[in-house]
Each structure stands twice: as C-alpha cells, then as structure tokens.
Write a structure and sequence with these properties.
25 helices, about 750 residues, 4 domains, Metallo-beta-lactamase, Chain A, Aspartate Aminotransferase, domain 2, Aspartate Aminotransferase, domain 1, alpha/beta, 5-stranded mixed beta sheet, 5-stranded parallel beta sheet
Length: about 750
C-alpha cells in the first residue's frame, strides 16, 4: 500500500467529495445563472456550499467567491490592492509606499506582486519581510515599515515547514497602517481555527485540493470595504466579482469537505494530529542518526515535519522513501523539479547543509492510526537500509566484497573509487571536497585500506581535496609514502591492488600535468581514467593558465596508441550522465577529435580551432566553471523510452530482452513491490556501479535488447543513452519506470481503517 505523506502538496479526494461531484454532474448539472428548475437546483447547491464555507471560515460578512484555486485568489487580491493604489496615484496622491511580503511566502505571492506592479506601471519597491530562525516574521521590522506599506502579504502557515504565523502579532504591527493585508490561508484550512471577519485581514485565498477536494476549486475571502477589482470580467457570475460559469462539480466536492469539517467525524482534532506527528518524529529520529528538525513543533502545524539528515542528500532520501512506498517531498511541490536549496530555510538563516538536504513530510488531517503505524515501520526500515549500505553516519559494518568501480558525482564532477575485493585495498581518483566525510565513512564500513588518493590533473574549477581526504582517512591509509603533486607514490611505476594494477600516462594539454591512470587486471587493460582530456561530447578546455594547448593533439594520439579506440575512458566531468566514452565513439561525435586522430589537423590548427570553441564558455547548469565545450549534445534528442505494451510484446519475441534494474541497493532493500517487471528475472546493476557492467553489455550480440528500469525512468534513460552512445543500439528504458508500470491485481487486504481504505481505492 502506498503511504502518502505529501499532503501539503495535494491530497486524495475524499470519497464523499467524489460522490458529491458525480451527483452534481449527473443531477445538478444546470447552470446556476439559469432561471429554470435545473438552474435553480444548481444555484441552491452553490448557495448552500457558500453558506457552509462562511461558517467554517468564520466569515458571516464580506465577499466569499469561488475560484479555481489559491493562485487565482492571490492574483485577484494583488490586482485589487494594486489597482486601488494606482487609482490613488492617478488621482494626484503622491505614493511613497512599499509592497511587503514574507521572505518565506509561496512563490505565487512575490511573482504576483512583480507581475501586477509592472503591468500596472506602479514600480513600487517590493521588499521581503525578514523571518527569524523559527521562520516567524520580524515584527519589529514590520512595525517600522508599516506606515509606508501599501500591501502586506503573509501566510497563515508555511507550506514547507508548517510554521504558523503570529497573525495577531502581525495585526498589532500593522495598527494604524494604511496597508491592505493579504493572508495566504491555504495550509490553514482544516488545521487552524479561522475567524476571518473578526480579524483585519483584507484578502484570504484558499485551495480545495490541499484538503481532500479536487484540484481546480478554491475560495477567496474579501473583507467588507476592501477594494476589489475582478481578475475575470464577463457574464457577471459570482455577483460580478469573478466571471465564468461556476465549476459546480468542484463546488459540490468542496462542499462535502466543508461538511466533514463541521461534523467532526472524519478529520482529527489537534491533539490527535499532534500525537501522530510525535510518533512520526520519533520514528525518524530513531531511524536516522543525527537527524535535525528544521522548525519547532510548538510553532508548527501538527501535520508537518521538515527535517535534514547530516551527510545524506535530499535526493537520496526521496529515492529511498519512494522505494519504500512513502511519498514525501523536498519542499514545495511547485519547485520540486529545480533541485535547489530551500529558499524558505535559507531565509530562516539555516546553514547550507540543512537547506540543501531538507525533506518535508506532511500527512493528512484524516489519516488514521493504522496508516501512521505503517509509515513509522517503513521509516525505520529506511534507516536500516542506509546503515546496511554504509550511507548512515552510524553505518553497520559490511562484510560483502566491494564492487570494482564506484562512481560519485557532484554537479557534473566525477570521483571514482577502485577497490580490490581480495586485498580490500582501494584508490580514490579525483576526490571532491563534498564527498570527503562520506568516502571515509564508506571505507570504514567496508573495511577498506586506502592505497592512494590521485588527481588526474591540477583542477581549474576547484581545489583538490586529496590532502583533506588523506588526513580524514589517516588511519585507513595503507602507508604514509611521499607522493608527487597529483598523489602518485614517488619512485613507483605502478600501484598494485591485489590482482589489479594502476599505471600512469602523461597526456598534457588540458593542463600541463594532465595524467591518465590505466587500470589493468592481470595482463588486460580494463579501462582508463582520463580526467578532462576526453569527456562525453567534449574535450577539456585548454585556456587555463596551467594548460598546454599545443601539446593536446600529441597527447590524444598517444592516448589512442596506448589504449586503442575501444577501451572505456572514464572522464573527470560528465555533465549529461553518459558514464563513459571511447575514442571511437567520440570521433563520431566530435569533429576536432576525429581531425586530430585521422591526421587532418596538426597541433597548431587543432589548438586554434579548439580555442574558438572555448571562447566565452558560459557556466554550466550547476553554475560552475565549464571544463569543456560540449559539441554534440550527447544525443539528448534520441528517444530510448519503451512503454509497458512495447516491452510486453518484446518479451514474446526472439531474442528475449535483458532486463536491468538500475536502482541503488538501499532502494532494493526497502522496495515496497519486489515483483519483477515481467516474467523474466531482472539483473540488478545500480547506477553508481554501472561502469562494472558496461564492458559485458557491449560484448553482447547487437540484436539483444537491454531494457533498463528504475523508479521514475530518469536513471534508466541515462543508462540506455550511455549504452547506445557506446555502440549498443538496442538499449532501452522503461518509460515512466516502475511508477507507471501497471500494477498487478492482488487480493484485497484488510483495511487500516474505514477512511484509509476508501481513499486508497
């Protein structure tokens, strides 16, 4: 069973709300503006729901209009407030006013302020109200600004942290101010007691889908006497406040939710919700060592927990929870795809490690004890999975042999760990400062000795963290030998790790000291770590002060002569997640490389053409220095996705496809559904260990389909594109991953409680 813990983003639709919507569509489908019987039935429904909303919101007076949701309500309120300010200005009144909004507001508010401020030509200053470390508004700052405020926008409760605003304190700070006051009340509905008419709030928008109503329906409260300008003009619906035929199905569904709030049978009281939150908080603290909560429980909604686990990224936690069937988020759902640190937590002054790795857990006001029990059990299982896979600050020692190669990536920069299972020795290549603590923990957990820490070159985009890693892993170092500037033991021709050998090859160009490390097993060259000399779709730039551009062409020829055209090359940067490349594949993608290796460009011509490519290179998508000019786009446009129906058909053909699950081991350990995607048992090769299987897959017959899958289809698509780029044309990704794979029918299970069973169906 899916355990949905992202209620601040949206909620399932209450069964009563679904029934009410269907009834409205089937039996009360009339237009409420019509005067015949069908229209009158619809009008009666609309009026009844509005009356219920007035009781629930404590708004016996003022306007209460139905909208499409909170964003429309916010836009309408901001337009109304700013329109009256413009009329005052146009009437000759000098405006020396500011527009104020809480620094932790939902982005819909500041974006609406910017939009209408510009569109109406007001050009008033827009300022963020600071918040304290608890996420509450700085009332002293607001009090000082109140006399010159034209509009003040705050929240009733924050969507990311759950922090409840001190509305009474804000009202006191605005005493005597001419400002209009907008309060985003989306997260308050069903969780806080609201008495809007008794407050000085001018505008309060609400959204139905945050409390078990469908998406597309909301409310906007407007205080009596507050200025109002319709966002939508037309047929005069909603007393000419909001044109457009009313969404009767949505209104009926919202009415059913409001009825449930009044009768008190479905939604839990504050005490029960607080108990649920405490149980979840306890499970989280027991599961994840060092976990910190980013907002105080005493000041927050009883349904919201925002937390960070030191040393564990939010992406890893989200993947882990999702694999366990726990749906949580990294913050606002509207910003989830941007993978940026939380601006809410940054505004609170939290350190970068907290704001960048925060996770939000928010449960529904109707979730029962059974669901909370199961959620706590799965949370503890997630913690155990991290410990078992050496990813927790307090890992469990692991006796299993490590894989030959493990790749770590930070903002496109790659770090590699080469380990020998027999001798339990390893080498780290191109360490990154963000990984130091995690690698030391990883080594201790697996009982590995560190033979060397190597850089492939003196980096132009960051300082080497090799010394930092050696110091942190001092007790794990095989021996304290003297090394050169790149970490190679002086006087040694090779580094021996049991049955593995590393040798080095000078390839100056990107930098004067650029070096390739060649990995041999017995007498066979397995692969080469080439730093930024050759990357998928790019050659390392050679315009750094430490570069040797005229030596670059000769180094590429040397590399080809020593490793050949088909040996896997592991790059120092991999911005498009292609994992590896070969000189043969890159010659097809990169004209400059082909020109050098095929003898059409000499060293000077190559350096000149390369310099033209590197002129004014922009920053990467991670806002870091680009270490090479990408020239082929890494076949981003190639479609590798295969739908469920296509895969099912492929399974009946010949040759049978190979299925590869690229989820990480910790995801596999907690997987809520371990059923193979088809009737063929899959191979398990994690994304971080994909390099170990690439040679074997490339050796397969060209007509053998390899179908990768993961949770969402993102990592599997990367694997498929990487394999295709290296020459295996029959590489595919299951479209949408396991998230969209049709669920197998299963016998009905006992319900956790009546409501939970209904909303899961």
């Amino acid at each position: 069973m899916e355990i949905y813990l992202d209620a601040n983003a949206t909620t399932p639709v209450l069964p009563q709300a679904r029934a009410a919507a269907l009834s409205a569509m089937a039996e009360q489908f009339g237009n409420p503006s019509s005067t015949h019987a069908s229209g009158l039935k619809a009008r009666a429904l609309l009026d009844r729901v509005r009356a219920t909303a007035r009781r629930v919101l404590g708004a016996p007076s003022g306007q209460l209009l139905f909208t499409s949701g909170a964003t429309e309500g916010i836009q309408t309120a901001v337009l109304s407030a700013l329109s009256t300010l413009r009329r005052r200005r146009d009437g000759g009144e000098p405006l020396r006013l500011e527009l104020l909004y809480g620094a932790t507001e939902h982005k819909a508010v500041p974006e609406a302020l910017k939009h209408w401020n510009a569109l109406l030509g007001l050009q008033l200053p827009i300022r963020a109200i600071p918040v304290d470390a608890h996420g509450r508004h700085d009332l002293a700052w607001l009090r000082d600004r109140a006399p010159t405020a034209g509009l003040v926008c705050t929240m009733a409760a924050n969507n990311e942290t759950g922090v409840i605003s001190d509305l009474e304190g804000i009202a006191a700070a605005l005493a005597g101010s001419p400002a209009l006051w907008l309060v985003d009340s989306v997260q308050a509905l069903g969780k806080l007691t609201l008495k809007l008419t008794e407050s000085r709030i001018d505008y309060a928008p609400f959204s139905g889908h945050k409390l078990y109503a469908p998406k597309g329906i909301g409310l906007l409260y407007v205080r009596d006497g507050a200025p109002f300008t319709p966002l939508l003009a037309g047929g005069g619906q909603e007393s000419a406040l909001r044109a457009g035929t009313e969404n009767m199905a949505g209104i009926a569904a919202l009415g059913a939710v409001l009825d449930a709030l009044e009768d008190g049978e479905i939604f839990h009281d504050q005490t029960t919700l607080a108990v649920h939150r405490l149980r979840l908080a306890t499970a989280l603290s027991e599961a994840f060592s060092g976990l910190v909560f980013n907002a105080p429980a005493a000041l927050s909604l009883p349904t919201t927990l925002n937390f960070t686990v030191p040393g564990v990224s939010s992406k890893l936690l989200l993947d882990l929870f999702d694999a366990a069937g726990l749906r949580v988020s990294g913050g606002s759902a509207c910003s989830a795809s941007k993978a940026q640190p939380s601006y809410v937590l940054e505004a609170m002054g939290l350190p970068a490690w907290q704001s960048a790795a925060a996770v939000r857990l928010s449960f529904g006001a109707a979730d029962g004890t059974g669901l909370i029990d199961e959620a706590c059990s799965r949370i503890r299982a997630c913690g155990a999975a991290l410990r078992a896979n050496c990813l927790s600050p307090m890992p469990r020692a692991q006796e299993a042999a490590p894989e030959l190669l493990t790749r770590f990536v930070v903002d496109g920069a790659c770090c590699y760990l080469v380990a020998d299972a027999t001798s339990r020795q390893c080498v780290v290549i191109d360490p990154l400062p963000e990984l130091t603590d995690g690698i030391v923990q990883w080594l201790r957990c697996r009982g590995l000795a560190l033979a060397a820490v190597l850089d492939t070159h003196s980096h132009g985009d960051h300082a080497s963290s090799a010394g930092e890693l050696r110091a942190a892993a001092c007790a794990l170092l095989k021996e304290q030998s003297t090394t050169d500037a790149l970490g190679w033991p002086q006087g040694d021709d090779e580094i021996v790790l049991g049955g593995l050998r590393l040798t080095r090859l000078a390839i100056p160009g990107h930098t004067a000291d650029s070096t390739a490390y060649l990995l041999h097993e017995a007498h066979t060259l397995r692969l080469a770590f080439v730093g930024d000399t050759v990357m998928p779709g790019a050659l390392g730039r050679s315009d750094f002060p430490q570069s040797e551009p005229l030596a670059y062409a000769s180094s590429l020829k040397t590399l080809e002569r020593i490793v050949g055209p088909h040996t896997l090359l592991l790059p120092g940067h991999d911005y498009d997640n292609r994992f590896a490349c070969t000189l043969s594949a890159e010659c097809e993608m990169q004209p400059l490389l082909a020109g050098v290796l095929q003898g059409r460009l000499d060293a000077a011509a190559f350096a000149k053409a390369k310099a033209a490519l590197e002129d004014h290179l922009p920053l990467t998508e991670y806002q870091t220095l680009a270490c090479g000019a990408r020239v082929d786009g890494c076949t981003q446009g190639t479609r590798v996705e295969m739908g469920a129906a296509q895969l099912t058909a492929l399974m009946r053909g010949t040759p049978r496809p190979m299925l590869v699950d690229v989820r990480e081991p910790y995801e596999q350990q907690v997987a809520a559904d371990s059923t193979p995607v088809c009737d063929t048992a899959p191979e398990y090769v994690s994304s971080s260990g994909l390099l170990n299987a690439l040679p074997r897959w490339l050796a397969l017959s060209a007509d053998v389909p390899i179908v990768f899958y993961c949770r969402s289809g993102n990592r599997s698509a990367q694997a498929a594109r990487a394999l295709r780029r290296l020459g295996h044309a029959q590489a595919w990704s299951l479209e949408g991953g396991l998230a969209l794979w049709p669920a197998a029918p299963s016998p009905a299970e006992p319900s956790l409680d009546k409501f939970e069973t209904t909303i899961q169906q």
